[in-house]
Amino acid sequence: MKIGVALGADYIPYKELFKISKLAESIGYNQISVPEIWGHDQVSTITTMLNLTEQITVSSGIMNMYSRTPALVAMTAASLAEMSKGRFILGLGLSGPRVVRGLHGRDFKKPITHTREFVKVVRDLLSYGRAELDSELLGKLSGFRLSFKPSYNVPIHIAALGPRNMKLTSEIADGWIPVFMSKDSLSENIEKMRTTSPTNLENFEITPFILSAVGDDEKIKNLLRAHLGYYFGGMGTFYNEMLKRMGFESEADEIMNKFQKGDVNGAYAAITDEMLHKTCVFGEPSDMRDKLENYYKIGVTTPIISVPFRASPKIAMDTLMVFGKQ
To answer: Looking at residue 68, what DSSP letter applies?
Structure first.
């Protein structure tokens, strides 16, 4: 059974981050996913990790499809795959209107169409070396070919939260990245993908980010609450709507309302113990391993252990060791 970990320089100092990435490989982790929000650049971090390791796969988890052109993404993916001899996974996502408009100054238009066209261009460039497109969203692409032939296949995984995007992901991607979804909701959506997708999902990867921390005292719970509260209340409507679909409608409204009024601590406090138990893996090491086992049983191929923001390097290291294979 495969397992991964999400590691980013925005919440773990670089010195500790690279130490932890080498540790992850040494104790049997199969994948590192490197997030990018609005701080440290993702690609430079991935490049360094690939240079410091020998076997582990490194993924862009998750690269924003509005902040880079698809041609640049294809060039980056092909380069990272070549330098690592095929150890790179391209994880893509839409981010959200707040980030896309406020940080990157791009228009958040027609996200489903944007995803479909973006992935097509990336695939065409990686597979054939060239892409032709005449698009309202991505412009007119013609007359160029990559100056080198990609030597390795690059799997494309897509982070999708809503029903339409999940359906599209099952049709055009090699894998799905759910983020902070409850196990019950994850199970329902995996089964839906299997029964409604027009493509063969036999080798389809399901790699959910699962918020995890060893221990169950209030300090640990508050770290988990702050992380979830920020996503469910401060990252726009996508995560909040997903929380409602998971059965927490009144809680989702309360979290969003408090966050919008500036009561951030109140929003975090609105994350109930039930929500933590349904969306996170925490507690004693033996209990955490048992909980993770249940994810494999519903069809998850590579759970990605995600340590909460503001967790100390020690908490990150201790959590990583819980699921080590050696």
So the answer is: S
